[in-house]
Amino acid sequence: MKPTLPLLTALLLAPLAVLNVSAEEWFAPFQRVADYKPKGPTHCFRQFNHDWSYVARHPDQLPELLREADPVALAELCRQTHVDGTVVMAVPHHGYCTHETRVGKKFPGMKGDWFGRTIEELHKRKIAAFGYVTLNWNWKFMRENAGQPFIHLDLKKSQPGGQISGLICLNAPSYLELVEAYTREVLENYPVDGMRWDILMSAKHCTCEGCKRRFQELYQRELTQWADFDEQRHMDFYLATTRRAVERLHALCKRIKPSVEIWQNCLNSYHDNDLDAGRLLDIAYNEHSDSFRLLFLRGVMNKPAVINGLMTGNTPTEPLVALDRRQWRTGLALGGRCYSYYGFRQANPRTLLPSDTMLAWHREQLAPFYKMVSEIEPWLQDAVPVSHIGIVFSERTRFQFPKYNRSPYVKTMEPIANACLQRSAPVEFVNALDLDKPLSRFKLLIAPLTSGLNETELEHLRRYVHDGGNLLVGGDARPFPSSGKGKVVHLRNLNSSEIIDRLAGPAPVIVQPPESRVILTRQEKQRRWVLHLLDDGPCTVEIRREFAAPTKIAHQYPASGWQCVAESAGTGLRIQISGQATDRLLVLE
Length: 589
Ligand SMILES: [Zn+2]
Description:
Layout: H1 5-19, H2 71-80, E1 85-91, H3 114-124, E2 128-134, H4 139-144, E3 151-153, E4 166-168, H5 175-189, E5 194-198, H6 209-219, H7 231-256, E6 261-264, E7 284-286, H8 291-300, E8 306-309, H9 325-333, E9 336-339, H10 356-376, E10 383-385, E11 389-393, H11 407-422, E12 428-431, E13 444-448, H12 455-466, E14 470-474, E15 488-491, H13 497-504, E16 509-512, E17 518-523, E18 528-533, E19 539-544, E20 553-557, E21 562-569, E22 572-579, E23 584-588
Parallel strand pairs: 1-2, 2-5, 5-6, 7-8, 8-9, 11-12, 11-13, 13-14, 14-15
Antiparallel strand pairs: 3-4, 10-17, 16-19, 17-18, 18-23, 19-22, 20-23, 21-22
Helix pairs in contact: 2-3, 5-7
Bound molecules: zinc ion.
Residues 150, 169, 171-172, 206, 208, 210-211 line the site of zinc ion.
C-alpha cells in the first residue's frame, strides 16, 4: 500500500513532537491521559526504583502486601532524596496488579488504585513515574499453570504451595497477549512517563504448543524433539522468541502513545538476547553498572542515554555500602542516568518503604548526591563525550562462537575501552549498522574480532580509510588493503596501548598528573563543552584545538572553594586547576 501524504506527514512529525516537549510542559495539567506529555527517563538524571518485587514471595504473605502502602509517603521519600524519576510497579513478579484491571487481579490486601494514586502524588512533586510490568517470572501465572508444558519450574528452588522459581516460555499460548493486555491498561488509563518490562528471558528447549507453532512458522519443519536439531537452531529459536516479545511490545506501545519511552532489561553484553533488538527501545539499560558497559550499550544501541544501575542486592544482614561518588559522576559524564534499586530486599511488604537502616542511607548518602546532580543537570543534558577512537561492534560476530557466546568478543574490547577511559579518552562504540553515519570524528576505528560485516558495511569502512581514518583490525578478522590516506593495521593481539596511541594520535584531552581522570563532553545545542573533573586536588588539563576549541571558562561548579586559570597553549587551551572542592566541573565556551 502506498502511504498517503497525511500519514507520511504524521510519521515524520511524530519524533519531532516528542523532542519538542519543553521542561515547562512536563507535569502540566491534562484533560485526557492521551494528552499527557511524558517526561521519559532520558530526561531524568536522578532515578531510584523503590523495588518491592522480591519481598513476600510466599503465597501466605500475599494478603499483607501493600496493606498499609501510602502513595504520599512513597512520593515524599522520593522528593526528600531529590529523585526525579521512579518505577511504579503495576504488575510485579507476584503476578497481581496494583492498577485498576479487567484482565488481571488486584493484590488482595491493597486498598483502591495504588498505582494511579502513586503516579498522581509523584506528579504533584514533579517526579516522573515509569510503569512496570513483569515479562517473565509472573509467579501467579506460573502457579496457576504449573504442570503445563510451558511452565518450567526450578524444582530445587520451588516448594509445593510455597515460594517458586523458574521460567515461563514466552511462546506459551496466550501469554504474550496477557502481558500486552496489562501494558495496554497501563498506557491507556494512566499518565505514565515511561514503560518498562522485566526479565526478558524465556525457557529453553520447550516443546509447548506455542513453541511447536512458532518453530513451524520459522523453519517450515515440525519441532519433534530438541535433540533432533543442532545447537545453532536452538539458539536461533531462542533469539527469535525473545526478539518477538521486544517487537510486539514495542509495536503495541508505539501504536498507543509513541511519546512514552520504553525499555527492557537483559539486553547487555552478558545476556543471550539479540542486542540489535535493543535498538527498538528508546533508552539503553545497564542494570549492574560499570563504565565499559555503559559506553558499550550506548553505542551498540545507538541511544543518547543509558539508565545506569549503580548498586543492587544487599540483604538485611550485609553492611551498607557507601555511595561511590566518583563512579556515579563518571556514569553521568558518559551519558548515564543514575539509577539503583539498592536495598530492595529490605522493602517493608506492608508499606513498600525501605527499612530504617536503608532510610538512613537514602538520607545520608543518596540525598546529598542527588541534590548536587540537580544543580549540574543543565550541563548533563544532551551531552556527548568527545571521543577520537571508535570500536566497531557487530552482533553477527558472536555467530562464529559455540552457543553464540559473545563473551570472547567482549573480552577483547573491554581492556581497550577501560585503558582509554583511564587516560581520560573514552572510546565510542559504533554498531556496524551505523557505519553509514559520519565517522570522520574518529582518528582510529578498532575492529577487534569483528566479523560478519556485509559488503555495504565494509564499503563504509573502506571509505573511512580512503578519507584518512586509520583502522586497526584484531584477532582472526580479515583486514582489507588500504587504498587512500589512512592506514589499515592487523594485529592478532590488541593488548598494546602503544600501537593504539600511535594510530590514534594525541588524545583530545591530556591530564597531569595522568592518574587524575577527567571527561570532556560536548553540548552541541548550547555550543559549549563541559569538563568533568572526577578526581579532587590540583591538575593541569590540555584540550587540543582540533577536537574542541573553547577560548574561555564560562562557569565553574561549585562556584567557590577552588581555582582555575585558562591560557592559550600551542595546541589549544591549557587549564591549571587548584583547590580542594569536590564534584567539580568547568563549562567552556
Ligand atoms: Zn514453549
